Amino acid sequence: MQQFLAQSRAYFEQGSKAGDQQREAKEQPDERPLPESVAGGFSADSDDGGVMTLVVGIDPDMDKNGVALVSDGQITELHGMSFFQLQSFIDAYPDAVYVVEDVEANLPVFNRQLTVRKNLKVAQDVGRVKGVARLIADYLAAKDCRFIKVKPLTGRFKVAKKKADVFNRMTGWTGSSNADKRDAALLALYGIRRGQLVVRPSEVPH
Fold first, then answer.
1. Rounded distance, CA 28 to CA 20, Å?
2. Which among 22, 92, 110, 145 would be 20 to 30 A from 28, CA to CA?
3. Distance between CA 66 and CA 169 in Å, rounded?
4. Domain coordinates of the chain in residue numbers?
5. pLDDT by residue (tens digit) across 57-116?
């Protein structure tokens, strides 16, 4: 794990090869150590002998993916990462459990009050996000990481995504956040159903 932490810190200091030289200091990870991950399958209500599992929520985006780190039911870090930064993060934490929003589950919605040109722009942006989400899932599968895709959360979770004060009361988070990061955290906290088993692709029976 120390090697993973060192790789992660070095990565965030140097930026990805694609690089985002203007990221703000608040996007930098803190120095708190992360827990060891359990081996094998992970269940939301399994008894893992007291060993905590790192759960990572991902809200796909074409520019900055919302990424949340959750340990023992508590949010430890929130980040905005480019696709290349996220790849390096996954490389550093292959034993985490990843919960990715399944944006392809959203049906296309067109606003009749917008012009055709603006609706086409919206459709183009949605298509780009769906493309990023598919690449993230493909990369996790290629790395044989434990992950699941979850339909966008609704109800009170959707409200918490939009409103920081509601999110803070629900989760106990006191730091800064935006909608993408809040969505990622909610996915990590509530996206896995009780008893749902998350395994590596290589462990799925064919």
1. 12
2. 145
3. 20
4. 2-21+30-203
5. 999 998 899 999 999 899 999 999 999 999 999 999 999 999 999 987 765 655 566 676
Q: What's the token pair of residue 12?
A: 């965030």
The helix/strand/coil state of 65 is strand
The pair of three-digit structure tokens given for residue 188, joined into one six-digit string = 């990590």
Q: Which two tokens stand for residue 159?
A: 């409200």
Least Cα distance to 57 among 125, 136, 127 occurs for 136
* In the chain, beta strands by DSSP E: 42-43, 54-59, 65-71, 74-81, 97-101, 146-150, 197-198
Q: Is the pTM of this model over 0.85?
A: no
CATH number, domain 2-21+30-203: 3.30.420
Element (H, E) at 92: helix 83-92
How many angstroms separate the CA atoms of 37 and 48, rounded? Answer: 10
Report angle CA 47, 50, 56 to the nearest 5 degrees: 85
- DSSP 8-state assignment for residue 159: H
